[in-house]
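Internal tracking record. Fields below are filled automatically when a chain is submitted to the structure queue. Please do not edit lines marked as system-generated. If the sequence contains nonstandard residues, flag them in the REMARKS field before resubmitting.
Queue: standard
Priority: normal
Entity type: single polypeptide chain
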Amino acid sequence: MTRCNFFDRFWRDESGLAAEFALVLPLLLLLLLGTIDVGFYAYRINTAEKATQVGARWAAVTDPVAAELKTESYVNETIGTTDLGQGDRIPLADFSIICTSTGATCACTGNDCLQNSYTRDSAAFDRLAGRMQQIFPAIQDSNIQIEYSGSGLGFAGNPTGPDSSPLITIRLTGMSYSPIAFSPLGGTVGLPDFAYSITSEDLDCADPNVCDSN
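SYSTEM-GENERATED OUTPUT FOLLOWS
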């Protein structure tokens, strides 16, 4: 029996085998595509987590997006109930500076903000976003949020760098995945939000393209 004759008899089979196969085939394809989608979804999650971690490590050793963090002084400032003088350790401060892809400033909230808003360094943000997009090209600038908050590290009047060494948190939000199984319908599945925190180091880098040596 030739192959052509076999398929011809299969499609003309009056026992109903061909009809049953036609009914089962969409379910088999959906199962196959679903299995592939689960793998791709897990890969997207892993890649987004890695991009967030790399972004935080990058931000720790490069110019801050909240520009004044690099130069502001805590000498003669009061944090909580502690009056700071030259060389005093900065206690855990209550502040949160949020920077996003939009606007000219980063807003500060909390009782220990030295100023209500900080200048948003767009070049520093672009370098950070570019580094994360090297890991996960699907990331858009609007998905990235940078937060600087009190860490309890640093010394007032530090002569070698920024007074405060804030805790840096990089958040990645609003990401989605387009499943292959839903492609005819154009559906998407949201990815969870990602966040990674690390204490800042020098918040300065003469060459941002090579400073991430970690």
